């Protein structure tokens, strides 16, 4: 007799990218930012640690909501801080989707959405992207129309490509919520400034953001959602009372208030990304033009597993990704490579040159 | 048209105790520890902040699991770290309870269980305690037998009373999981050392612990669950991949490894608790003998709301608690007062002396 819910018994659980807990790896597999966070973050953490850790944190995160609101020109009631944007995705499922209702998302993309739907007992459908990562809107429309939640990461992973607001507006479910997952939003050439929220459909849109990538704070677990206050108020009922701790609230506020630091790191990453893409092409790879802090690349040999394994033997981790049953029933396979420091990328290119 | 799930639309959301974000309050309402956490915690946080916040934390919290396992003489596979023990309660509902299944819990007790059940679309039933806070096991049994989860806080809140292992063993649901919520466990005269897990029924028991109270870390959000590895493995599928951040993992490990600090604070609180109980009795209050870091007290005048309000006017916060429809259909009402520092308790007693 299993005591677990059948939905839990059935699933394998999501497996995140490898996280070796020892030093010595060139880690280009989980889209972490290779640069440290703002020194103001470290000061804020030190100050919070010497403060009043014995009392509960502000349950609604007043300070950080204010900082986010100022950044995007919104009222703080539009902002919900979360324990990483992962928690926001869980809250969204639990807020809007009942068992057997439908969620849909583009494919190939972030398959965590399927695990979250399975946990909620919900159905999930993949909206197959064209081989050039554009949308087949005619094929997507019937799924969008039936969906309670549509998740769209933009820029998308693993492709690093970005869709226009005009395309996104066609994906809003008539009786549901559109989640624009902008974990990589800050790396785009023209970062999204929440224009979509000011459209007629704005009351059905939730934008999720993460401090893990652009703010160099994957270790901190902090994200936030932006949406109409009616949506935020309901989502707040679903979250744990004190979902964000005192230290991450203080650190996140300091990080968001140091835009200069974040932008300088982003610019460095964007420059390295260009260099990486050019060098990979010289080595015979096809490289998708990226708007994120990683590139999606395939090799004409098709030997992605072999390249991944041989890099790993040399202590370089990239992400081997396989998406069966993509458009036309074909498997999409390739390597997703995080844009590291210039030194890390030099090391990668050097080893790739030896391997190929 | 509401976009929310009907279950979410229906609930009001849990309202935690008041958390004034300004100084100047004598805060005796949310069972925080008045003493600071171990200096080793502050060092661990500083070190983590200067470390690698740009990379993801260890998703399974190896270091802190080892520290907990050593403390209780278990294997680390018996331990699941969570973002506060609140997150553990949410994970338990999502792991074991499908919509319309039953959870039950003693009453008066921690009503958050009802909110969590409502969010999951589950049913909840109260097992009415006798006026002296003992169990009516005959009345409880039919509910226990139908329950998928039975939640029992021990020591209980608001009473501060503690039930024997012998009683608890009679509350294990034959086809479900028994959750022993030990948020206040360290304050008991004989803190529970997980003996229940080694009984035949041990495979159906989950013990939850919090660092918020005894370790003075309410601001940090860290808790852990202890259970048979089969239960922990399934619960791990339900949690977010990186549910605990790098700083709280490091801080929690340091806190748990400094038992001396925790015990010294606990002993101080237990001594102050005794003094508070005696002084309240002298002021005409009935005081329930407490095994926690708070006392439950009633006044023969029945003017609890008035006392609460007049204390609040003097910037002293205690918790006014009202439990309608307790045993015999009667309302249970009283004040739950956190055991603060001796100075805080002196101030409370002084003002109470003026009010009464």
Automatic annotation (TrEMBL), chains A, B:
Cofactor section: pyridoxal 5'-phosphate
Self-association state and partner proteins as the record states: Homodimer.
Residue positions where N6-(pyridoxal phosphate)lysine is found in the record: 213
Associated pathway: Amino-acid biosynthesis; L-histidine biosynthesis; L-histidine from 5-phospho-alpha-D-ribose 1-diphosphate: step 7/9
NCBIfam families: hisC
GO biological process: L-histidine biosynthetic process
InterPro entries: Aminotransferase_I/II_large, HisP_aminotrans, PyrdxlP-dep_Trfase, PyrdxlP-dep_Trfase_major, PyrdxlP-dep_Trfase_small
Name the UniProt record assigns to this protein: Histidinol-phosphate aminotransferase
GO terms, molecular function: histidinol-phosphate transaminase activity; pyridoxal phosphate binding
Domain Aminotransferase class I/classII large: 25-352
Record-listed E.C. numbers: 2.6.1.9
UniProt catalytic activity: L-histidinol phosphate + 2-oxoglutarate = 3-(imidazol-4-yl)-2-oxopropyl phosphate + L-glutamate
Entry keywords, A to Z: Amino-acid biosynthesis, Aminotransferase, Histidine biosynthesis, Pyridoxal phosphate, Transferase
Similarity field: Belongs to the class-II pyridoxal-phosphate-dependent aminotransferase family. Histidinol-phosphate aminotransferase subfamily.
